[in-house]
Design a protein that fits this description.
It is built from one helix and eleven strands; from the N terminus they run ββββββαβββββ. With 157 residues, the chain is mainly beta. The radius of gyration is 19 Å and the shape is globular.
Length: 157
């Protein structure tokens, strides 16, 4: 099974898509998605990822994580979990400091999303065609408490 993201580029610059199959960036320029109304299709297999470069804005990381779950984003202690909690597969889209947590069913057809890049370079979720998606915020850099400085007693700052 694959995931498929239908992409429309409304930005004033070409976009570049790089599949990171097996964690290795391919040589070459990647797939070019033309500026202003260019379209493309991002297909990612389970366990793989792709990176979409948005000039001047950074990268959108697309990860198909299979049957993993982000534990803190589910109704773990609820007697009747939502449909979102019951979907077996997940993908994660990360852009800047915002993530889209997407869950969908296991079927032979690819799970699909429609995404666009608007005229100012913002990534926009246009439509979820398969499953459900939620906006989440994950830490960019986790530092365990053991590494945080402890202030001496009696010193307020």
């Amino acid at each position: 099974m694959n995931i498929k993201i239908n992409l429309t580029n409304r930005y004033g610059y070409d976009l570049a898509l790089y599949p990171y199959d097996g964690g290795v960036r391919p040589s070459g320029e990647g797939q070019r998605i033309a500026k202003v109304e260019g379209t493309g299709e991002i297909t990612v297999a389970q366990g793989e990822c792709s990176i979409l470069e948005v000039p001047g804005m950074g990268s959108l990381l697309i990860q198909f994580l299979g049957d993993d779950k982000l534990a803190d984003c589910h109704e773990r202690f609820c007697d009747s979990p939502s449909e979102f909690d019951e979907y077996p597969l997940m993908a994660l889209l990360r852009y800047k400091t915002t993530e889209l947590y997407w869950r969908f069913s296991d079927s032979d057809d690819p799970a699909e999303l429609n995404v666009s890049i608007n005229d100012i370079g913002t990534v926009c979720l246009d439509k979820v065609l398969s499953g459900e998606a939620r906006r989440v915020q994950l830490p960019e850099f986790f530092i365990p408490p053991v590494f945080t400085p402890h202030l001496p007693e009696g010193n307020p700052d």
